[in-house]
Amino acid sequence: MNQRQLFLQHVGQTSPAPLALEIVKAKGTVLTDRKGKTYLDLIAGISVCNVGHCHPKVVKAIRKQAGDYLHLLVYGELVETPQVAYATLLTKLLPSSLNSVYFTSSGAEATEGAMKLAKRVTGRTQMIAFNHSYHGSTQGALSLMGDEYWRNAYRPLLPGILHLEYNDPAVLDFITTDTACVLLETIQAEKGVNPPKKSWLTALRKRCTETGTLLILDEIQTGFGRTGHLWGFEPFEIVPDIILLGKALGGGMPLGAFVADKALMDQFTLNPVLGHITTFGGHPVSCAAGLAALKVLLKEKWISEVPEKEALFRELLVHPAIQAIRSRGLLIAVEFESFEVNKRVIDRCISNGVLTDWFLFGSNCLRIAPPLSISKKEIKKACSIILEAIQSEYLR
Ligand SMILES: Cc1ncc(COP(=O)(O)O)c(C=O)c1O
């Protein structure tokens, strides 16, 4: 059997038609397959590789940490320098009430931890989530997921979760003194880039404060410069009670986190002690990698260049087959008439050396979320390949 067949046979599969490209090297914005073919990466591992693949400073930090120590003990017992340094820098860059970082191994675990914390802090169990939201695939996070198609096969899930409409003012009436938390993506990514109205988010914040409900923002796709701000919530001028981090947090290594005020986080230390535990959460190599990646992001001009790069994509991607483009920074959805059209465009892009895909709840939308380090020359090249793919579909 060749590699591809072994992959299909022995690696647990998630769809009947995986991309199954055999990538052997990744550097910056370029992936190279076994035959030497290169792909310009427009998806960055789904908003993970914001500083590009294998940034030399990230790789150096991983090598250094691997030479010092790997796993030592379960999370929270020992003073591990990479964790401490990373938590310190993250909290320095966040509002002062987000000052305690609980590291996990994934985004879904960050969601789980935050849900548990909301229960402990408020003594309530009801939660509000939104249609077309995605917060992870574990059963708590899945209970929040905003689509019955994916939830239904795994029932029973957590009770007491209301799924409401994002941006709907009526949501305010559902937030009461029984609500533990309102949990939402700062921008709904998998819906195909659905941002909140500022007035709506402000009203949510106010209503949560009035009712003692925690406002939890999922920054797993929107964090680390993706929207042109270090944190996606910055332009909305509100401060959430908890944020969820993941994806780019680890600089290409597995890492998640939820961040809250220490007074809230301390709930996990009592009644019961060890209220939330993990063996590998905040792995020292992941923290060293994430810290190095964040330092690169702060040093480079990539975040400030996001708006011009976003504008360049929008300026170049003009075609009658494009029904809409929605974007917030370098999180861009290009909408077509149907999934079938989108899929043929995506397939042609991939065979012509541009890696892209669709969105979970926006299957007719093509995803553009490249490493923030992408150059203008690469954007022009990517857009000409996308336009050629659209045109060939158009002329079908
Ligand atoms: C917004 C959002 N939240 C949470 C998650 C879950 O993260 P993970 O896949 O690391 O569990 C994802 C993953 O795609 C996501 O996009």
Automatic annotation (TrEMBL):
Keyword presence, Transferase: yes
Pfam family example for this protein?
Aminotran_3
CDD domains annotated for this entry? OAT_like (cd00610)
Mention one GO molecular function: transaminase activity
User: What are the names of the required cofactors?
Assistant: pyridoxal 5'-phosphate
Which keywords does the record carry? Aminotransferase, Pyridoxal phosphate, Transferase
Return the similarity comment: Belongs to the class-III pyridoxal-phosphate-dependent aminotransferase family.
Question: Which protein is depicted?
Answer: Aspartate aminotransferase family protein
User: What is the native source organism of this protein?
Assistant: Flavihumibacter fluminis
